């Protein structure tokens, strides 16, 4: 299930934010620097005007950066001076030691941070730090090299309907920044005893293998997640939440924190489901969203029927009407009410089933067009469809239904000649999944 929000509301009951979180974030960036020789310190204040805490406390933060002294070969230098003068390479060891000491810990702190999602994301995807820095320094309007677009697509950053390079870069950097600062954001914006979804849960083979084999996505660690039950919709074990200005994150039921399976809830299935929503965030098409999300479910029944609702509002409405329909059978209710209450449930169910059958028919038709008509392998066809908009899937369905002679080569040629919101996505699709068509635009 996917939910969109315009903003997050700071927790008014929280105590004043501790600068320990700032130290931890800097340490994460320094660990990545040591491993990759790439400085991502710009992430601390990138787009800080959209960040409640860093914007409102900017003066306090810069004062701390100036006052925090690092012991550099017998002399004291402010952290701000070292960072602003690009002295990081020569002084990274001293900065790390000073920060660890200020946190009152030792090697244990560094060991813990090594296992954090941000550090693991940048370590497993070895080229990502260099790419993120390159994207940040890219001038507005300057194109992104094809090999970088392909690499990002493999990580799950699908181009979608993005209209400019700047818009695409902004989404990626905000998402990386969210992973870096998720601990700060949790303290500022979330209430209750919530815990992060550990990297091990994202890296479980039952999550990574289906993503790679079915949709061509691997090492997808750029979506942070929490275990928290209080604000989950009644009918859901997990949701993907997209917040304007912050990014996308996952929320799962807290009962799944220590158990992979709790009654009908399966942690691996839910993580997979919500990652699919997050990866298609920029595609901006919802007709087949739940079909893709449930396509990797091990349950045949859920795979067949669960896409009957789209979005949290439809799920909640269906749930409430179902409850009313069931409770109306109790002896305390008159028989006429029991009969009448079934009508909305029956109507909604029939409409949902009709729409579900139609969407499955459209998706299967598009799949058959690629596999039967164009002799594309089923695994490659799934990867292609996952990156298409609703209109493009319907177009392939209509070609299959009409038994059209239009081939995929002709479609690719037309798509590559369209605007940047279409041709960049199709260019990546061709390079990754249709390599024999790489020169099709020249035909």
From TrEMBL:
This is Predicted protein.
């Amino acid at each position: 299930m996917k939910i969109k929000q315009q903003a997050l509301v700071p927790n008014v009951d929280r105590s004043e934010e501790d600068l320990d979180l700032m130290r931890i974030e800097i340490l994460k960036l320094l660990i990545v620097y040591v491993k990759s020789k790439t400085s991502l310190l710009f992430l601390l204040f990138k787009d800080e005007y959209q960040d409640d805490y860093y914007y409102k406390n900017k003066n306090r933060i810069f004062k701390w950066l100036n006052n925090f002294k690092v012991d550099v070969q017998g002399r004291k230098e402010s952290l701000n001076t070292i960072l602003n003068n690009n002295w990081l390479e020569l002084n990274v060891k001293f900065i790390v030691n000073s920060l660890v000491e200020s946190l009152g810990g030792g090697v244990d702190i560094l060991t813990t941070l090594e296992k954090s999602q941000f550090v693991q994301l940048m370590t497993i995807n070895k080229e990502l730090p260099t790419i993120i820095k390159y994207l940040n320094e890219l001038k507005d309007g300057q194109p992104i090299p094809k090999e970088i677009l392909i690499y990002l697509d493999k990580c799950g950053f699908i181009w979608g309907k993005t209209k400019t390079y700047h818009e695409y870069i902004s989404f990626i950097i905000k998402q990386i920044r969210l992973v870096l600062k998720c601990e700060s954001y949790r303290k500022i914006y979330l209430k209750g005893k919530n815990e992060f979804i550990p990297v091990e849960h994202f890296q479980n083979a039952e999550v990574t293998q289906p993503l790679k084999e079915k949709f061509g996505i691997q090492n997808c660690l750029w979506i942070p997640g929490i275990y928290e039950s209080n604000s989950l919709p009644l009918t859901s074990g997990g949701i993907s939440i997209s917040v304007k200005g912050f990014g996308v994150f996952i929320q799962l039921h807290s009962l799944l924190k220590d158990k992979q399976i709790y009654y009908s809830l399966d942690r691996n299935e839910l993580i997979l489901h919500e990652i699919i929503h997050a990866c298609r965030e920029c595609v901006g098409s919802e007709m087949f969203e739940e079909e893709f999300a449930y396509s990797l479910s091990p349950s045949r029944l859920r795979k067949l029927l669960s896409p009957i609702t789209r979005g949290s509002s439809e799920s909640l409405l269906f749930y409430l009407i179902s409850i009313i329909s069931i409770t109306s059978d109790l002896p305390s209710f008159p028989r006429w009410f029991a009969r009448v209450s079934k009508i909305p449930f029956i109507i909604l169910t029939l409409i949902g089933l009709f729409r579900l059958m139609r969407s499955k028919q459209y998706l299967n038709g598009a799949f058959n067009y690629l596999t039967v008509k164009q002799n594309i392998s089923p695994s490659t066809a799934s990867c292609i469809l996952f990156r298409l908009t609703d209109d493009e899937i319907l177009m392939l369905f209509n070609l299959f239904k009409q038994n059209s002679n239009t081939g995929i080569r002709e479609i690719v040629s037309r798509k590559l000649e369209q605007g940047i919101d279409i041709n960049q996505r199709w260019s990546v699709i061709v390079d990754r999944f249709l390599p024999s068509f790489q020169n099709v635009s020249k035909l």
